[in-house]
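Sequence dictates fold. Below is an illustrative record:

_____
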Amino acid sequence: MKNLIKKKLGIALAVTLSTVTVATAYTTTTELTNAAPSENVSVNSIRNDEPTADRINEFKDIAMYYYWHGGDIQQAEKEIFKGITLKGKYDVVENAFKEATQLDPYDLDLKLSLASTQIIQKKTPEALQTYKRILNLDPNHFNANLLHGVYSKVNGDNSSYKSSISNLKQIDSKKANEYLQKLKTTETIINGKLNTSAPSDLPQKDHAIVILGYALADDGTMKETLIERLKAGLSIAKQYPNSKIIVTGGVPKQGITEADAMSNWLISQGIEKDRIILENKSTDTVENALFSTAMLDKEGLKDVTLVTSASHMRRALTVFKEASNFYDKMNGENSNRNFTNVVYLDYPSIEEAHKVSKDEILVIYRDLFRTSGIWQYPGLQR
């Protein structure tokens, strides 16, 4: 573990390597997020006799560590956030950004990060208030106007949504119209049909089946949800033997990623290894889409059938469509990529699956914005 001890920070990690316990202090978000999940986290109090910038960075590092790994909530409650009751890791993230914004109330990125954490926790009114504070300081902040407007609409406030859209058109009409098109596309997806079996008219050429991963158990085995997604994908693969298969997911457990485990399972079921493409770097649905789309372009695969759980499909279709549009724009071309879907039905019925909750809509738009290039935590985490 080289180059880890660089300077004092407010997080001390005790890492057990074989029989040796090594005390380390992390200084950068990269080092924090690359930390092993088995580490025991100890959080030291942040001292007031350190430079303001250092204290802010320590809160950022605490936020990002807990975002990725969680940690000792009770110790954080006792030593950092005295008098604040914490219910989970995102409480730590939220309060770390609250502390950081108090140290630098001028930094709008810190406020955006705070609002993002509130959105993750479905604290929409609190997030809207945070976005409003940003807009009070900078009325022409494009992203804050966009996020405030759309989340207001999700929360039932169409008047604020219309006002935000009007502001966006004055700030940057071209960009505003691009986002209006993204929102229109997303609404179509939200109201679209979910399929429990493959359509009979899928392309016989340049077609990919993309099976989305699901977190592995701690021992590296696949959970039922992932196995069911694979079964759905296997059925399509047998029906369309010329289609390539992309398996996605890069978070390792016991040295194996979701993509690795999925590939091994498909091969054990008789799928030829050369049909399978591994996307094994992603950590979530947004990265599934971005990294898989790059592979689709590289392999010359035009059309896609997405396979995932019914509860996940609308979000998946949204981000894959957005990622595909982005790559078209970057490459200066129009792929006219067509997306179809097959779901593992994780609802009592298909009728129930077509009912879209407010919470699901919130997450769909959150990931649309992330895929479009608006980071949840500016400069820290997509």
The chain has 15 helices and eight strands. Residues 310-331 form the longest helix (22 residues). The beta strands are 11-17, 20-25, 40-43, 207-211, 244-248, 276-279, 303-309, 339-344.
